[in-house]
Amino acid sequence: MSYAVKEMFLTLQGEGGQAGRRAVFVRFAGCNLWSGREQDRASAICRFCDTDFVGMDGAGGGRFDDAAALVAAVEAFWGTGRDRRFVVLTGGEPMLQVDDALVGALHDAGFFIAIESNGTLPVNPGIDWICISPKAGSEVVQRRGDELKLVWPQAGIDPAALEAWDFPSRLAQPLDDPNAAANQAACIDLVMARPAWQLSLQTHKLLGLR
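Below the sequence we write its predicted structure tokens.
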């Protein structure tokens, strides 16, 4: 199959348990919780996405005919050397496109594969690091993984209920909107009240990275 990619770039992972690692980010086009069209925002399940996943016009983006072509592009962004190769598959919703062929080709090229998903689709079992970020109003089927990232505050989600899901790490991350200070305080309050959670900050934004 071919793959539609919004953008691709080399950066540092800024969030979660892999924060600080050199990484190639592959942002797949499309999401099953929002069409990306402004006129659909009022009826969307997810109303606070902080990324542009519409189209294939971003830097490094485009249509890749097969897994080999996409992995060749990922390798080009990584550069020379195979030591600690790390790729983050994100979106949009990457599991609309990620398949066995891509996972196998990335592993063959020596990449440790992380995914950032909304959890509404089962994650490919070959993925090495699973980060799920649930959205209120959606049906999350992927209830196990490596880290659960709760964007907070978020009406319609009960953090206590999420603690029954099988994740060794549970992260409360401030909602990125104009109420930044209040959202950070809400996350701190959550962690102080429920120690199963820990605070996560988007360090790449604090550092001015993509």
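Strands lie at 3-12, 22-28, 62-64, 86-90, 112-117, 129-132, 147-152, 169-174, 198-199.
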